[in-house]
Amino acid sequence: MHKKLFIPGPVEVKPDVLEQMARPMIGHRSKEASELQRRISNNLRKVFFTESEILLSTTSGSGLMEGAIRCCTAKKAAVFSVGAFGKRWYEMATSNNVSADLFEVEMGKAVTPEMVDKVLKTGNYDLVAVTHNETSTGVMNPIDKIGEVIKKYSDIIFIVDTVSSAAGTKIEVDKCGIDICITSTQKAIGLPPGMAICTFSNKAKERAEKVPNRGFYLDLLSLYKYIQKKDYQYPSTPSISHMYALDYQLDYILNKEGLENRFARHLEMAKVVREWAKKYFELFPDENYLSNTLTTVKNNREIDVSFLNKELAKRGFQISNGYGSLKDKTFRIAHMADCKMEEIQELLININDILGLE
Ligand SMILES: *Cc1c(COP(=O)(O)O)cnc(C)c1O
Question: Where in the sequence is N6-(pyridoxal phosphate)lysine found (predicted)?
Answer without folding.
Answer: 187
